[in-house]
Amino acid sequence: ATWAPDHWAKAVHCNTDKYPELARHKIARAETTQVKYHWPRFVGKNGRIDFHGQDKESIVLKLYTDQGAMGWGLTSKDAESYIPKMVNQPVSSLIDPQQGIAAGLHRSVDFALYDLAGVILNKPVYELLGAHGPMENLVYSGMIYLDELNPENAVKGLDAVMENCEWDFNYGYRQLKVKIGRSGRWYPHDDGLKKDIEVVQMIYDHFKDRKTEILVDSNDMYSLDDTKAFLEGISPMQLFWVEEPFREEALTSHYLRGWMNEHGFSKTLYADGEANPDHELCMQLGKEKILDVYLPDIFGLGFTEWIRLMPQVKDLGMLTSPHAWGDRLKTNYIAHIASGLGNVVTIEGVTCLSDDIDYGDYPIIDGKLRTSSAPGFGMKLIK
């Protein structure tokens, strides 16, 4: 299913009585630029994708007003075509912070407009959304992959996995998402499944006395039988969640949830819907208490769409954890969704370092990410 524009895109009626400061500011100019960042270590394969590397770039959009305010955010090349629609327009005609961006604008300008609104109103984004969630939210490390396959780890083998887990623990994470699915591309099938079980058991044994939870993610590279065999192999270990075991499909998903409930994994969350999700199916699976956590990407879906989707997901009793992999900016944006709207069960932590970006005050302390209370998203461009 696709996101129907007429379902989500509603005209913004942001009156000057409600946000007089936004009406006072007009967009004077806008520009895009590239920023560089890197992960703290080389990131290797997952079950589906080859080496991810370490040094990365993103495009950001900067919006300047005639009153001297500036807001910025992650964007794409699409933003260039929307700049003419925003220049000389009052900010109040472009965004209502409680509802989202105006009809006719693209998600590629979402983050910059929310940051700008927060800067103008001198409020963090989560307050603009209502501050319905906690200031500190569970966060997991999304940085653990099939590290024994990285070329430089040939001698270390599985010790490399443990080194990276330990690094993440020391950084503050108390949830570790372990990529599995080795049987998909990188190992002979049975050997890969056996190695997945061995690695997850090894991590569990190492951290079980340190209040650390394990999540697993197959990146759709398992079958139903593989998933059952994996869970049988690690039993009676408890997992926080099982993510993307296979492409979401009604009967297979129903069978997995039923099997988990009957075989000691009733408390393990089933998470899916990250990559090109079948939205209608995922919502139906949530309604039927099959799918526990919905995962569409925070940028791929868009900040405004997440704001509008969250009440529907809540009504179904389904939890969320917007996908963030690749960019710490997305992790911090999700923190505001979590603190502003609630119903985010855990946040995907992407650890990044940058000479171009000041990521702001988002500390990870004992497994929880604290949302910045600075205006907007509380991050700054250095370049």
Largest sheet data: 10 strands, mixed
Distance between the termini: 40 Å
Low-confidence stretches: 1-15
Radius of gyration: 21 Å
Number of DSSP helical runs: 13
Would you tell me the overall average pLDDT?
A: 93
- In total, how many beta strands? 17
Strand content: 15-25%
Helical percentage: 25-40%
The helix/strand order is HHEEEHEEHHEHEHEHEHEHEHHEHEEEEE
- Judged by helices, strands and strand pairing, the structural class is alpha/beta
Coarse morphology: globular
Walkthrough of the structure:
The chain is an alpha/beta fold. It contains 13 helices and 17 strands. It has helices at 5-8, 20-24, 79-86, 110-121, 125-128, 158-171, 189-207, 224-234, 250-262, 279-287, 298-301, 303-316, 328-341; strands at residues 27-43, 53-65, 70-75, 95-96, 100-101, 136-144, 175-179, 213-217, 241-243, 269-272, 293-294, 319-320, 347-349, 357-358, 364-365, 368-370, 380-381. The strands form 4 sheets. Strands 6, 7, 8, 9, 10, 11, 12, 13, 15 and 16 form a 10-stranded mixed beta sheet that branches. A 3-stranded antiparallel beta sheet has the order 1-2-3. α6 packs parallel to α7, α7 (189-207) packs parallel to α8 and α8 packs parallel to α9 (250-262). It is globular, with a radius of gyration of 21 Å. The protein starts with a helix and ends with a strand.
